[in-house]
Amino acid sequence: MVSQICFDADTIECWLVRTRDRGVALPVYIGLPGVIERHKLLGIALRIGLGDSTRVLSKNTGFWRHLALEAQPGPKIMEIIWDAALPIETSCGGCCACATCHCYIDDAWMTCLEPADADEVDMLDMAFDVGENHSRLTCQIAFSEPLDGLRVTLAPA
Could you tell me the mean pLDDT of each successive run of 10 residues in the chain, 157 residues long? Predict the structure, then answer.
């Protein structure tokens, strides 16, 4: 097995322990890739079969269609997407000062979310392609257990 996806020793150790617990005893070689854009690195990882490391379960014929990401409760949806090395704009770094992390929430999930506050509504007024009732900013949605399975579609950049 080869791992060149993650640079965090604790994460690699956790992955290795989970892999060994499943009975996989192959040798592991860990290396560092050269400088590359995050979305290209993720694409390479998927092509060479490192889906477990990237936590990506499926992809679309164009770019990304359906992704399943693992996360612990607490971080914002934007952080989960960013940590998975997926292409998401985060111009303000999650401070609700732009609308680059605009997304669409599946209708069935809208009632599970806290309502958007006034700042988020103001930022969405500046976003393109705002959905009638299901546009949100990923930086304003904290992931929690009740949101397990949440379906999010990133808005066009």
Answer: 57 78 77 57 60 41 54 89 80 86 89 91 87 87 89 81
Q: State the pLDDT at residue 70.
A: 79
Q: Which residue has the tokens 């560092």?
A: 32
Per the DSSP assignment, residues forming a β-bridge with 66 are: none
Confidence (pLDDT) at 27: 75
In three-state secondary structure terms, 20 is helix
List Cα–Cα distances, 48 to 11, 41, 82, in angstroms: 20, 11, 21
Q: What are phi and psi of 105, to 5 degrees?
A: -100, 135
Give residue limits of the domains in the chain: 1-56, 69-157
Work out the number of other CB atoms within 10 angstroms of the CB of residue 59.
15
Which pLDDT belongs to residue 49? 57
Which residues lie closer than 8 Å to 18 by C-beta, 6 or more apart? Answer: none
Nearest to 128 by CA among 156, 94, 104, 90: 156
Gap between the Cα atoms of 26 and 41, Å rounded? 23
Q: Are strands 102-105 and 152-154 parallel, antiparallel or unpaired?
A: antiparallel
CATH topology of domain 69-157: Ubiquitin-like (UB roll) (3.10.20)
